[in-house]
Amino acid sequence: MLNCFLFSPPSLRENDYEPFRSFLCFMCQKFRQVYLILGNHEFFGVSRQEGLRLADKLQGDPELKDKLIVMNRKRVDLQDITILGCTLHSRIPLEAEEIVRNKINDFRRIVDWTVANHSEEHAADVKWLENEISSIRQIDAGLKRKIVVISHHAPSTKGTSKPSDEGNPWSSAFATDLIGNKEKSCLDDVQWWVFGHTHYSTESVCGQVKLVSNQRGYVLPNKNKDGTEVSGKFPSRIRKIWDNGRRDQSTFHPEKVIEV
């Protein structure tokens, strides 16, 4: 079984750093290792460079060291399983740049962050993934290691967002069609791809790749979706908010585990 977490904390800036550190300390006491995927929200109020510095600071914290692993183009080998982690910024086509810039908060709230920066990071993330996967398949030819990719943005636009959100003019800010295309690439040669960012929990199969997301989204832990208060402790109150006695694929499950 693989326990991995895809976080997008409120921010890594000064006011949020200590609360987030405390939360990570709590999680690191519960699990052998916690894999932290950097998204977009943790850079709100700071530059990307400063956010990366603060993430490195968290990873080196005495209470988190060797337990917390920041997956910023990071590879971790676990017996016959390899985990590859990166943000996987999306590819924003030229015709969508203006509406994405106007609709998406990242370009107002991340210091000195532009659509061009976003696209450059996308290209760097994809190149890193391709190099790592190709290297694994060449060096471990015949062994067929299982590869699990964990990213913040989604690797496909199909089925990774709410149906009502698919195909909207700014959807390229959330996902990129990297797998399941007519021309196959080494990115199709992975077994699992775990993602976030779309605020939509789902499981599906794209070719041989099992796509899975378990996302809580923006709903506050002590409120229903209509804003009314919910009593009880986390995670039982979360189950009360979303499940109401039912478990459907599109809801967040706080105790979800995938077996690789």
TrEMBL record:
<dbReference type="Pfam" id="PF00149">
    <property type="entry name" value="Metallophos"/>
</dbReference>
<protein>
    <recommendedName>
        <fullName>Calcineurin-like phosphoesterase domain-containing protein</fullName>
    </recommendedName>
</protein>
<feature type="domain" description="Calcineurin-like phosphoesterase">
    <location>
        <begin position="21"/>
        <end position="200"/>
    </location>
</feature>
<dbReference type="GO" id="GO:0016787">
    <property type="term" value="F:hydrolase activity"/>
</dbReference>
<dbReference type="InterPro" id="IPR004843">
    <property type="entry name" value="Calcineurin-like_PHP"/>
</dbReference>
<dbReference type="InterPro" id="IPR029052">
    <property type="entry name" value="Metallo-depent_PP-like"/>
</dbReference>
